[in-house]
Design a protein that fits this description.
This protein has 17 helices and 17 strands. The chain is an alpha/beta fold and 491 residues long. It has 3 domains: 128 residues, Aspartate Aminotransferase, domain 1 (Alpha-Beta Complex), CATH 3.90.1150; 235 residues, Aspartate Aminotransferase, domain 2 (3-Layer(aba) Sandwich), CATH 3.40.640; 107 residues, 3-Layer(aba) Sandwich (Oxidized Rhodanese, domain 1).
Length: 491
Amino acid sequence: MPLFPRSTYLDHNATTPVLPEVRRAMDRCLRKTNGNASSLHTAGRQAHGAIDAARESVARLLGCPAGQVIFTSGGTEANNAVIKGVFLAAGKGHLITSKIEHDSVLGACQQVESWGGKVTYLTAAPDGRVRPEEVRAALRPDTILISIMHANNETGALQPVEEIARIAREANVPFHTDAVQSYGKIPTRVDDIGCEFLTLSAHKINGPKGIGALYWRGNTQWAPLNFGGDQERKMRAGTEGIHQIAGLGKAAELAAKRMTAGFTRMRELRARLVEGLSRVCPGVRINEAPSEHQMPGTVSATFPGKSGLHLLAGLDCYEVAVSIGSACTADRIEPSHVLLGMGRSSEEALSTIRISMGATTHAADVRYFLSALKDVIENEPAGFAWLDPKHLTEEVIRSEKNLLIDLRYPYERMMGPTIPGAQLGSFIGFDRSIRRIPRNRQVILMCGTGIMSFSAGYRLARSGHPAVRVVYGGYAAWRALHPGLIERLKG
């Protein structure tokens, strides 16, 4: 163990810590701005003024009139609003997107397909970038929208959005870009990009969760997702969360001030990190675009022969937070769709972790991460392994040599009965129960999917327990293979 363990957060692409200035702005709003922005009295006008001020701050980074900014609950809602809204307004049509998009874009496109729409999913090149010529080749007479992200959330590869927007304009097709990972970090001026729609989120720039925005140039009709009010130009009904909007406004203001210096600082930190990774693991491969097309705060690293999940769990023991891909798919054992979309194999994708830095990351965090990673790679805990669910038989469950612990969430236990004889545990606060787990029995851990129990099992093995097994695929995989076993055990 390093001599001085420190909490080290390196998952800024998933979410970022809220800055003190943002918290203060939100607190002031909660204490002093009590009206409904749709009301005509003084309190309502004050609330409306707070929203207008925040809208100006958000628009300033986009280089657009404030009236073209529509507040949403976040990037996911904004992406859904554009994709589904354009299709619903058109009533039919074809969309172009890529296989490396955020799940909210892919999910919205899949829903459009279920409504009868057609979608082309483009692959990315090995450097993680979509090729403009492939966008051009995918155009059809009935194409109604092109949606390609600005910066990829897993690799940090910047997409050629200006070229794609030019192709879209020539074809008279609106262009949408998901700028959640780039807004506030690099220039995202909408006229330079040439987009009709752009989406962003506060919690990626040290603002609060639950608030984002959609830029709309105003040339393309789309149907709102929410009806029943005149808020947000009648395009997003619902009483505004003024304190969250104020938080986004302050976060955008702070991001604008630090953008240039922050980019340079991130680039220097990234160079140190990549160089350190090559020392710790000489065979490491960095999944990246050429430097001029690469977000500096993101490093996607593949460790041949290693499990990304093992690395994540090991680093978590050192209070280091990284990711094995998009946080939105972190509850499933499957390869990253982004890396697969770049042509990587499933094995390579499952051997990859994402390290993402931000405004609160310092050189000491990089040094500590590299030290912890070295120890994790060199000191795999003994007695720790997966258990194939087919081997969790009636005999194994009934054996006094084994202790089965169910770490599923309470709602999961309501949906599927606990295996008779299993102890009930919790992944949250699992460390507090480690001392009470007997060392003279093999411990078998099970959660819903195998992810949470894997992390808990790794920590248990690191504490010195000699025999820890984690059910691969979790309860769902086990139940599918043994559909009547719980009933037999009960009988």
